């Protein structure tokens, strides 16, 4: 599934780059790709630090930063797309860095995968260890030794 997507996206990127190059010239096309990469990297840095601050704030408040972690994943994928030369990947990467569209992407992913995540017939691996210690040894482990002085 990923290989055909990779091939199609590469061919589309080449087609768009050649079309834009014919319209505005080769040097202008290269400059435009570099400018979009610079704008994207600036947004990537700003949004990454913003999400990190939200994670730290939620952690300090004793909350689980689950949504912020998903935002971090989308930001990471957006950064990879921005590093890939081309206009289509840059556009998708920039969409991933805009908070409104990033939230939309995360909600769509959760809607499509909620059934898989929360289904009752999920299979999993549970690792249980047997306690091979005798009851006397287990009792010794619960003993705390110390000294006490009273003046």
Walk me through the structure.
With 151 residues, the protein is mainly α. The protein has one domain. It is 75% helix and 0% strand. The chain has helices at residues 2-24, 26-60, 66-83, 87-97, 99-118, 135-141. Residues 125-129 have low confidence and may be disordered.
Précis, in short:
This protein is mainly α. It has 6 helices and no strands. Helices cover 75% and strands 0% of the residues.
Give a quick set of tags describing it.
single chain, mainly alpha, 151 residues
Rg result: 26 Å
Query: Structural class, judged by helices and strands?
Result: mainly alpha
- Count of DSSP H/I helices: 6
Helix content: over 70%
Shape: elongated
The span between the termini is 76 Å
Elements, N to C (H/E)? HHHHHH
- As a percent range, the share of strand residues is under 5%
Number of strands: 0
Number of domains: 1
Largest sheet: none
Poorly predicted runs of 5 or more residues: 125-129
Mean pLDDT level: 82
SSE order and pairing:
Elements: H1 2-24, H2 26-60, H3 66-83, H4 87-97, H5 99-118, H6 135-141
């Amino acid at each position: 599934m990923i290989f055909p997507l990779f091939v199609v996206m590469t061919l589309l990127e080449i087609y768009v780059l050649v079309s834009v190059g014919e319209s505005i010239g080769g040097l202008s096309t290269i400059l435009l790709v570099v400018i979009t990469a610079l704008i994207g990297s600036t947004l990537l840095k700003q949004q990454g630090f913003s999400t990190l601050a939200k994670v730290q704030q939620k952690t300090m408040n004793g909350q689980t930063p689950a949504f912020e972690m998903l935002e971090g994943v989308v930001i990471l994928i957006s950064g990879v797309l921005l590093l890939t030369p081309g206009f289509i990947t840059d556009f998708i990467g920039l969409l991933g860095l805009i908070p409104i569209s990033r939230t939309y992407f995360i909600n769509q992913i959760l809607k499509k995968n909620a059934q898989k995540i929360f289904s009752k017939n999920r299979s999993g691996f549970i690792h249980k260890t047997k306690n091979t210690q005798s009851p006397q040894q287990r009792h010794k482990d619960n003993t705390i030794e110390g000294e006490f002085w009273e003046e």
